[in-house]
Specification:
Blueprint (H helix, E strand, L loop, with lengths): L1 H33 L3 H11 L3 H18 L1 H10 L1 H21 L5 H30 L4 E2 L2 E2 L3 H4 L2 H25 L3 H30 L1 H5 L4 H21 L6 H21 L2 E3 L9 E2 H4 L3 H28 L13
Antiparallel strand pairs: 1-2, 3-4
Length: about 325
């Protein structure tokens, strides 16, 4: 029982990270098209700044649960997807450094250089999360509990399309968020951009799904196709609906787009359960939730501690978002 609870917690933290930090990633990607002068750049920074570091706590918590609760995932998925993980971590660190240094230099030229670095880092990070999801969607080369990923897996059409879809979805999610969170020209441009990007993002998602169905390797990884299809359709509907709600529906709009951002976590979990990773070498090589989990004695001791900490984290996040619920403009404090 404990391993299933831990698995659900891992999914919760990963989904929370994509829903929250997806805003920051998308803002980094589309920011240059929304902010046309220093005042508008300040507005965009003020809109996302209060949540910047708090969003990453979810990823840190997910990493901690993976290392402590699922050593089998660390030895299979993380080591097997090493190139993707390295690029993701490097992009994350570059984004942090560039965001901090951007506020500590003066001059338009210097600002443009750091802004470009933030934009590239956000784009690479979004591509890596999409690549990771696309690669793990299907049956992968797992043997003796170890995943061995090569260019053939990472450059499959479904993996490439998944990476591009992630970029598009995060861009729509950020545009919807900024349409609601800001005022003036930035809000209007963000709402317009969200409406223009949403059909393309939905089209990319649909193309990814069709390619996955046509690809035998990807299709073999869908152990539970019905819930996967239902979640996919719900995510596409959310993607198309959210821009129509923004900005007049208030915070309901980014909540809807957040579902599209976190849906891949739910889809992967539902499609594979009770397996975590599906092997192309046969069912005997699959990595199940129970196989990847730590021993029951460890989970039964550490599990209650995690369950006690989780409400504190959720309460802190709720307090943070409530405290910064007001719309941002050029007069609002920018934390970065």
């Amino acid at each position: 029982m404990w391993h299933n609870i831990w698995y659900a917690l891992l999914g919760l933290f990963l989904a929370g990270y994509l829903a929250l930090d997806g805003i920051t990633l998308g803002t980094g990607i589309i920011g240059r098209w929304l902010a046309r002068d220093d005042a508008e750049r300040h507005t965009v920074a003020a809109a996302t700044g209060p949540f910047f570091l708090g969003n990453e706590v979810w990823l840190v918590a997910a990493a901690g649960i993976t290392l402590g609760g699922f050593p089998g995932l660390e030895s299979s998925v993380i080591s097997g997807m090493y190139p993707v993980i390295v690029f993701a971590v490097a992009a994350l660190l570059v984004r942090e450094a560039a965001t901090q240094f951007r506020r500590r230099v003066s001059g338009e030229r210097a600002h443009r250089r750091w802004d470009a670095l933030v934009r590239i880092a956000c784009l690479v990070l979004a591509l890596m999360w999409g690549t990771l999801g696309g690669a793990l969607l299907g049956a992968v080369p797992v043997e003796d509990g170890h995943l061995s990923v090569d260019a053939g897996v990472l450059l499959r059409p479904v993996t490439v399309l998944s990476a591009l879809t992630a970029v598009a979805v995060f861009a729509v999610h950020a545009a919807v968020f900024l349409a609601v969170r800001t005022e003036g020209p930035v809000s209007g441009r963000a709402a317009d951009l969200a409406r223009r990007l949403a059909p393309g993002a939905a089209g990319l998602a649909a193309l990814t799904a069709v390619t996955a169905v046509a690809d035998g390797t990807a299709r073999d990884g869908l152990l539970n196709p019905l819930p996967a299809v239902l979640l996919f359709l719900a995510a596409v509907a959310a993607l198309l609906l959210a821009p129509r709600l923004a900005p007049r529906a208030g915070w309901k709009a980014p909540v809807v787009s957040a579902f599209a951002a976190l849906a891949p976590v739910l889809l992967l979990g539902a499609a594979h359960f009770p397996e975590v990773v599906v092997s192309r070498h046969g069912t005997g090589e699959n990595v199940s939730v129970s196989d990847a989990a730590a021993d029951p004695a460890t989970l039964s001791v550490v599990g209650p501690v995690v369950l006690l900490v989780l409400p504190v984290l959720l309460a802190f996040q709720a307090m943070q978002w409530w405290a910064h619920r007001a719309k941002a403009d050029e007069r609002s404090p920018a934390y970065f």
